[in-house]
Amino acid sequence: MRPYTGPADLRAMQELARRLPDPRLHPGELAWSRFQHLGREPEWRTALWEEDGRVVAWGWARPGQLDLQYDPARPELADAVLRWSDQVMPGGEREVTALDTETPLIEALRRHGYRERRDGPFFVSMRLDLADLAAPKAPDGYTLRPVRGEEDAGARAAVHRAAFSLPGHPPSRVTAESYRQVMRAWPYRAGLDWLVEAPDGTPAAFCLVWLDGGAAVLEPVGTDPAHRRRGLASAAILAALRAARDLGATTARVTARGDDGHPSARATYASLGFRAHARTLTFTHP
Ligand SMILES: CC(C)(COP(=O)(O)OP(=O)(O)OC[C@H]1O[C@@H](n2cnc3c(N)ncnc32)[C@H](O)[C@@H]1OP(=O)(O)O)[C@@H](O)C(=O)NCCC(=O)NCCS
């Protein structure tokens, strides 16, 4: 086991995600969650377990939250990551999120004293077969287009912040600079990052799709509150998914709140044909 030393190690962690059958965290979701903000690394501890030059497990400890992936043929690696987290996350409650389909991980968490938290928010993982995709249609006056490159990072970050500024929550920390960091990460492609612009040119909605092999993942999707319920997110999603399909994607997956706290995303994906196939369970360690 050794500590994470920089972005090359994220690439090695993504290689493990690529080898897993239908992982909860797709390589693109890993890139997004590591790079969407700047300056977070000092709060994190990340460790990699390697064999024959490749990563077979990793653990990523954030304040109060642990993520891990491991080779499913080697369930003892889950125990190794959980033991490591006991050392680097001493004291305080911590959470691990698992899909209800991840039985070996759930068993490992229970062995380590984790208990399922039955109240509180949860997420559903939703899937869509890309064989039949409707044509995207932006309302009159709105323009649908892919991101051109880093010159769009400011607009992309601004519309992200508008969509994710929720009353009662701290503002999103996504900035033009952090978005450029996302754009430089594998497997980002500007052609899978779609924007809808309002008639005055203001960015109003977006959908970023990450593609690896045949699997596309949407992360994130959003519409500025001033432009909601006009079909903008749907148009951006369909355009990004058609671009992904042209590059070989056969299925798409997205994660959305499954409880009724914030139902708009789940309703949007369901209206496009996405169906839930698993839900998250939250395990806490006292
Ligand atoms: C989820 C979100 C992207 C939807 O954007 P949008 O542009 O308003 O979505 P659309 O107009 O394309 O909605 C399409 C359909 O989804 C459903 N839908 C969308 N929002 C809904 C809501 N609040 N309640 C119920 N149904 C909703 C409806 O069926 C809608 O069609 P209709 O307006 O004809 O009834 C937007 O609400 C948002 O940015 N939310 C905050 C950020 C977020 O949660 N992002 C997703 C997680 S990454």
Automatic annotation (TrEMBL):
This is GNAT superfamily N-acetyltransferase. The lineage of its organism: Bacteria, Bacillati, Actinomycetota, Actinomycetes, Streptosporangiales. Keywords: Transferase. Pfam families: Acetyltransf_1 (PF00583). Residues 142-286 form the N-acetyltransferase domain. The keyword Magnesium does not apply. GO terms for molecular function: acyltransferase activity, transferring groups other than amino-acyl groups.
